[in-house]
Amino acid sequence: MAHGAGGRASDELLRTVILPGLGNDPRSALPDSVVLSNIGERLAFTTDSYTVTPLFFPGGNIGSLAVNGTINDLACSGARPLVLSLGLILEEGLEIETLSSILDEIRKATQLTSTRIVTGDTKVVGKGSVDKIFINTSGIGVIPEHIGRIAPNQARPGDAILLSGSIGDHGVAVMAARENLSFSSNIQSDCAPLHSLVASLMTATTDIRCLRDPTRGGVAAALNEIARSSRVGITIGEDAIPVHQEVNGLCEILGLDPLYLANEGKMVIIVPSDSADTVLETLKNNPLGSESNIIGHVTDDHHGTVVMKTTLGTHRIVDYPAGELLPRIC
Amino acid sequence: MAHGAGGRASDELLRTVILPGLGNDPRSALPDSVVLSNIGERLAFTTDSYTVTPLFFPGGNIGSLAVNGTINDLACSGARPLVLSLGLILEEGLEIETLSSILDEIRKATQLTSTRIVTGDTKVVGKGSVDKIFINTSGIGVIPEHIGRIAPNQARPGDAILLSGSIGDHGVAVMAARENLSFSSNIQSDCAPLHSLVASLMTATTDIRCLRDPTRGGVAAALNEIARSSRVGITIGEDAIPVHQEVNGLCEILGLDPLYLANEGKMVIIVPSDSADTVLETLKNNPLGSESNIIGHVTDDHHGTVVMKTTLGTHRIVDYPAGELLPRIC
Fold first, then answer.
1. Within an 8 Å CB–CB cutoff, is residue A27 touching chain B?
2. CATH classification of B15-142 is 3.30.1330.10, yes or no?
3. Cβ of B81 under 8 Å from any chain A Cβ?
4. ipTM score of the complex?
5. Which tens digits make up the pLDDT trace of A249-279?
6. What is the DSSP string of B219-232?
7. Is residue B221 within 8 Å of residue A6, measured between CB atoms?
8. A160-317: CATH class
């Protein structure tokens, strides 16, 4: 508890564990507030809290998730991520080794994305008041001048809907790690930063309508949000949606629908139909988008509703997810 | 748990409780990320997590604390606070009524400070995984053009040290509420936003060296940080430091030193000595600074150390706080 009290022990934790762990200079504090000069005219600002259990899972961990998740939220506005804040809430008794491993993953994820943790805060709470560690990352990114408005309410009838790869891997990987489902040992979270994929898209076309990372609630929630915000209908084809065979298998056993599972390294992209082929090619040229596909289109029918043409040729409504499938996986 | 799963129940919580509670339009979501255009050349960026127990205490609550604390961190860079993010981590089973009361306090605090919650995130975690509610607020503020660098490493020998009012009220109020110390019923937290006080200071003088809100670790931690960052000595006078009689009484009974208690509505201000009288007058003209005083000065001796001349005429070192006094009060 002393490590969170703002005194010598807090300072020691900061200088011997947190700052070195993040790769920051231990002689200079992580300030309560930081000054940013002339970073750009249009900025994106986002926040997200990460409470995933377990802290480490195949393909990722709470540290990489906290960096990549916030970077992907910024990328969804078309922004180049620049700086992040880091709010740690630690449980009394958390092993320093666990904390160090998480900080190391945060460091690696920021290095990989050329972002920096510029301001931070650490709280320590009593045993049982938090589940080991919760992380909040907020972020600021810069939107390039030539980019128009990218938002969930910008979809228009006729637009093409693309998905940057297979879905459900993160949701299944976390659930399998939590429940010790050994038969699913090959499934890895897709946790990845998508800012470079988005940057390459913005080079290929200036006309992007919506970008959405389908995290909690999956592709179903992302598409429903777009259909509602844009007051349009959305039609997708089941056979066009990439799902890894193992994920599909596990979903069938457990009665889950991959459309509702969380992803942490995928993007839903909506562009005018005449740009769709260029965008698909650009996506496929990026290792993070090699399994991309055009999965459907925006219509002027059934406003606010997502409809899927199934592999059997029938149509079904893909509703907003009703409750929880997998708690706390993103 | 369904309220945190990103589907219909999450959406319902957002539209029927969170958005109306914050005074935002329930028809427009609180976006994952927001675009800010042309807000200023120099920005301050800060983050803080709030884990206070109890959630409501005399003079404040976790909602007002989360807004004012982040506003005060921005004010310490000389910034005018502009926008905030709101990250909520809720415990499964938290009463909607409690959440609504907290959101109402957040709404009032943002209205009072002309700030806005522009982006947010809500997670719900299993019972026992969090202590009712934790809040993270990050904030962005704009630093006026004429203001120079204000930072803990800018103090210089000869500078005057001012304190904007009496200390220890917040720390004692929270402890009393937690421990049900009925004899301390008149002590209220000083929780308040200090941006207008800082704005009036910056009108009075352009030459402010350091601003520091003495929260966790109290005035002792704030002054030690400045002494160390600026590589100077600091000397303060015990009789110059305002402490309310009731706070002093309770501290004597419990063996606490007010210098180490948290404050949530006070500012330590360091300015060149020839500006000290003007600054003091400006502070005293503001209701939030009516008990301000010049409490000491910066020296070229005992670098990195804070020394206090006691009421008995002796000198003692005011060390960095060693461990915890009052856990989780800010």
1. no
2. yes
3. no
4. 0.91
5. 888 888 889 999 999 999 999 999 999 999 9
6. HHHHHHHHHHHHT-
7. yes
8. alpha beta
